[in-house]
Amino acid sequence: MILREYGVQCSISPEELLVYLRAPSYEDDTVKLDEIINNKLLLLHEIAEICFLKEMGYKITRNIVIEAYPDTYYAHLEALRIELAEAGKLGRHDWIARQCIDLVSYLDDPYLPSSLESTVYKLITRYCNMVEDKKVNK
After folding, report:
1. What is the distance between the alpha carbons of residues 127 and 121, in angstroms, rounded to a whole number?
2. Domain assignment of residue 25, given as a range
3. Which pTM was predicted?
4. Residues 73 and 116: beta-carbon distance below 8 Å
5. HSE-up of 7 (CA within 13 Å, CB side)?
6. Taking a C-beta distance cutoff of 8 angstroms, is the pair 54, 10 a contact?
């Protein structure tokens, strides 16, 4: 599995995945279930999030996203790191650019724990600058 390449090892059941994908969030998610399931990078992201939460000792329940906050935000950023790295391997600079727009908006997110601001800056520096470099070199 791809996640092992990033040092993540866990097993999740199809039921856990569906419960997680259907769980209510503290933010308005605009990505639909079928979009996630049909997109390799989004699916990788969601599975990674689940793995990180399970690694922290959480059980995947209907209210996991809200109950595990702010750990869900941490899991999201770690999963995003993997998603962006994988997109880079696949040469999906368009995907990275799209995700960078969201990533920059996290700095204005009232739900972003102050302890994770430096993580967001690191992701922006690493991946969003990379996209700019690729555009300049074309």
Report:
1. 10
2. 2-137
3. 0.89
4. yes
5. 3
6. yes
